[in-house]
Structures are given as C-alpha cells and as structure tokens.
Amino acid sequence: QHPTNMPFSPTRNAEDPEKEWGGKGNAPRELSGPVGIAVDGSGFVYVCDSGNGRLQIFDRDGVFVTQFRVPGWAGMMYSEPFVALDPQGNIWVTVPSEKEIRSYDRSGKLLRTITRRSVPGVSFDIPMGIAYDTANHGLVIADLEAGLVRIPEVQ
After folding, report:
1. What would the pLDDT profile of 10-36 be if each residue is shown by its tens digit?
2. Is 127 in contact with 96 (CB distance < 8 Å)?
3. Under 8 Å CB-to-CB from 61, ≥6 apart: which residues?
4. Distance, CA of 91 to CA of 112 (rounded, Å)
5. Rounded Cα–Cα distance for residues 69 and 40 (Å)
6. CA 106/CA 84 separation, integer angstroms
7. Looking at residues 3-16, what average pLDDT do you find?
C-alpha cells in the first residue's frame, strides 16, 4: 500500500525495498509540485520542488540533505523546471518563466546564467527539459517553441 501523499517512489535496485519520501507541504523534505528529478553517481536525488520555488537534495535513502531557492520557479503553466547534472557536480536547471538556464553548485550558489541569446548561434524561447551531453560537454534543451537545442561546451 502506497500513501497517496507520496509523489514519487525511487527504487535503488531490485533487491532493495521501495523507498518513499516527500509528503505534500513546504517544510524540508516535503514537496509541492515536484517536476524535474535527477540522480548523481553517488545516489543523491535532486528534485525540482516547483511549488515551493526550491531545489531539494536527498540521499539515496530519502534523508534530506539540503535545499536552495531558485528564483523564477513560480508554478505557472509552462514554467515547470527540470534539472540535469554535469560530471563536475554542477546542477543545471531550466527556468522557463525567465527564459533562462542556470547552473548552481550544491550550496545554491549561482554559477552561470544562459539567456535565450547569450550563446552565439544558439536560440531558445521556453526551455523545459534539460540533459547534459557528456560526449560533447554541453547541454541539450527541450524548448517549447524551438524543439531540441544544443548548447555546446558549457563547462
């Protein structure tokens, strides 16, 4: 039986029991409108808690690690944020309402902002999905208007 207030249920592997966390709310470990999710090589889980305007980080067992605010995550239609991780440990997020892509470190320090026309030859309008392309050291963005957009060499 799964509690209905648990928005996601990550499983570590077939031998481990299912783990659940993230009841509805705004306290640490609680979620409101979780959308994007990523897991790093150490098993840390990064969750875009869009309704609370923050990114939360949990360990592989669901223990709350930290959180930080992401300005622009307003919970509006077509503003759902997504997250990707690069090999250096940078956290890349989409901020559709601001038409931006941002990079943060794990403490929440803003490292870089990419706007819709700040990279020569690259244009996007409403960035939604995001993935890090390890082969080309860049980002791939799913944009609501422009389709798939590559942003090269973002390290």
Report:
1. 545 556 566 677 789 999 999 998 999
2. yes
3. 19
4. 10
5. 20
6. 13
7. 50
